[in-house]
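Hi everyone, sorry if this is the wrong subforum. Our group has a chain we'd like a structural model of before ordering constructs, and none of us has done structure prediction before. Sequence below.
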Amino acid sequence: MMARGTNTWLLLPALLAITAAAQGQRGGAAVTGKAGAPFDLTGYWVSIVNEDWRYRMVTPTPGDYQGVPMNLASRQVADAWDPAKDEAAGEQCKSYGAPALLRVPERLHITWEDDQTLREETDAGMQTRLFHFGDWKAPGGPRTWQGDSVARWETSGGRGSPPRSGTLRVATNHLRAGYLRKNGVPYSEDATVTEYYDLAKERNGDVWLVVTIAVQDPKYLTQQFVISSQFKKQADGSGWDPTPCSSRW
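Answer:
Right subforum, don't worry. Here is the predicted structure as tokens:
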């Protein structure tokens, strides 16, 4: 299922530069999120884990928190991590919330639920996220692992003409507290997530999805935690393998 890194990752700085330049430029007024899409995200995608293997392909050992800007309160919570307690409480999905979901080795299935709602499903943990465009208002109610997500296209292009390039920006809040890593590194209900979805196409026809994920949490992080995850487009859903959440793997 997983592949090692390729020269594709040389494209990442350019993609991020495009993302930064495109922010605030909303070329071409779109009636709906679907109509205004500068590229097609739909289909099946598979994780390409070419970095952070010890945090993503296996459950990190207790106390292995390298790379996360944790404060003292965060370390105290993580040091008390006990997967058996999570299982007993029915909270096996604590590491499958929106801040960490795309770090899980998995496949994605992305579809348009309607003209203003993009649906992202994962086989690992069997999670579903809904990205709402337009003037959607959150309904309230209990917090959830995937929270409330508002999306918009940030594009560049001539006024009145179709966008030439762009990125999908997704902002998520109203989250249920969970883990940034499987070994108990926490995020709180105060956490917010901002993601940028970018597409890259290679000459051989391969299509790659790069998602830059920025987590802010005033309760447990000393600064913004920024990571990126990469996915390769699949021809079909033949590898789709729904698997429930796990506290240990």
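For your construct planning: Confidence is low (pLDDT under 50) at residues 1-28. The helical segments are 12-22, 53-56, 72-79, 83-88.
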